[in-house]
Specification:
This protein is an alpha/beta fold. Helix content is 31%, strand content 23%. The strands form two sheets. A seven-stranded parallel sheet has the order 3-2-4-1-5-6-7, with helices on both faces. A five-stranded antiparallel sheet has the order 8-12-9-10-11, with helices on one face. Helix 7 runs parallel beside helix 9 and helix 11 runs antiparallel to helix 12. The longest helix has 18 residues. It starts with 13 loop residues before the first strand and ends with a helix. The N terminus is likely disordered.
């Protein structure tokens, strides 16, 4: 158990940690690990998802940890916090701070498609400026996905282009979101290291350093390695960065834009019937993801005869399933999957293939 005193916030502003990272990087898993090591500290969570159905918040509520009650989790679905600061984010912070026992630390999980810089800028809003500070921005990277070329096809060429031209050509919106998340970070957690070998891990870290160098931040974000999101909470929740006062050193590809949207990506929910064979379902999901270029799949499944619900997590064609908790007596046993991909993803074809 972590020593509670080592995590105690300093007097004054309440510290907040922004946890960012692309779809499926392992942000929720990392937060769950933090909760397990909270050591009695009052933590509050703001969870944001891209889409109408919140999965990550429900996963955290199911963790069974006393530091993760219903009141401690505020879920903001159907949008990205970077786009809904005034309507959603600031009121959520105010709600937490107005509690009789306000949190000692606020953890904010952005959607996998969110740009962290606009969210950090929001801490200058008058309603919260004197009350909360960004202790640090943590970017989580899926080592396996990065090694597969999901974010930059050729890390060596990426580094060479940055050195020679001083800038990179961004061929996909995925690359830009990934790099924006890195360029805003104080800590970068290379997660899922158990899925790659030493050579692939070195390649991933070269990719990260090349992206940081190309951004010209002048900062050196610390790179940590992790599997299953296990990182010492003292490291994650004690950065002391005051990131909202360091925005000039956190460049974004969207700095010159008055606003931005997520028109490059789409999300929808597929309703399924009961699934008697989880292994067969996983194989189907793998085929569908490969055939249609699905970026992310996640949801809960009803397996007949099983008292627990099946949690499905998919990153590209990598599908994982496990039973996470018992169905509640009054809870409908529904099978629902959130599907996320780039704009143009054929919703009808994906739905038909899954159904």
């Amino acid at each position: 158990m972590t020593n509670r005193d080592t995590l105690r916030p300093s007097a004054g502003k309440t510290p907040a940690t922004v946890i960012t990272g692309f779809l499926g990087a392992g942000k929720t898993t990392l937060i769950r690990s933090l909760l397990e090591q909270a050591g009695g500290r009052r933590l509050a969570l703001i969870i944001n998802e891209f889409g109408d159905v919140g999965i990550d918040g429900e996963i955290l509520r199911a963790c069974g940890d006393p530091t993760c009650t219903e009141d401690d989790v505020i879920e903001l679905a159907n949008g990205c916090l970077c786009c809904t600061v005034a309507d959603d984010f600031v009121p959520a912070i105010e709600k937490l701070l107005s509690r009789p026992q306000p949190p000692e630390h606020i953890i904010i999980e952005t959607s996998g498609l969110a740009l962290p810089k606009p969210l950090v800028q929001a801490f200058h809003w008058p309603a919260i400026k004197t009350r909360v500070t960004v202790d640090g921005v943590v970017a989580v990277v899926d080592a396996a996905a990065a090694a597969e070329g999901r974010f930059a096809p050729d890390p060596a060429a990426l580094a060479a282009q940055a050195a020679e031209a001083g800038q990179l050509d961004h061929e996909t919106p995925v690359e830009e979101v990934f790099e924006d998340q890195l360029l805003c970070a104080d800590l970068i957690v290379v997660n899922k290291t158990d899925l790659v070998d030493a050579a692939a891990l070195a390649t991933v870290e070269d990719l990260i350093r090349a992206a940081m160098a190309e951004g010209g931040t002048g900062r050196e974000a610390k790179i940590l390695r992790a599997s299953n999101g296990k990182v010492d909470p003292v490291v994650l929740l004690g950065v002391g960065a005051g990131a909202e006062d360091d925005l000039a050193n956190r460049p974004s590809h969207h700095d010159e834009e008055e606003g931005h949207d997520h028109d490059d990506f789409t999300s929808f929910v597929v309703e399924l019937g009961p699934q008697p064979d989880p292994a067969a379902l996983a194989k189907t999901l793998e085929r569908v993801a490969a055939a249609h270029g699905v970026l992310r799949l996640k949801g809960f499944i009803d397996v007949p005869g099983k008292p627990m619900r099946l949690l499905v997590q998919g990153v590209g064609t990598r599908i994982q399933t496990h039973f996470d908790r018992f169905w509640k007596p009054d809870e409908p046993r529904r099978s629902r999957l959130v599907v996320i991909g780039e704009t143009g993803l054929d919703r009808d074809a994906v739905t038909a293939a899954l159904s």
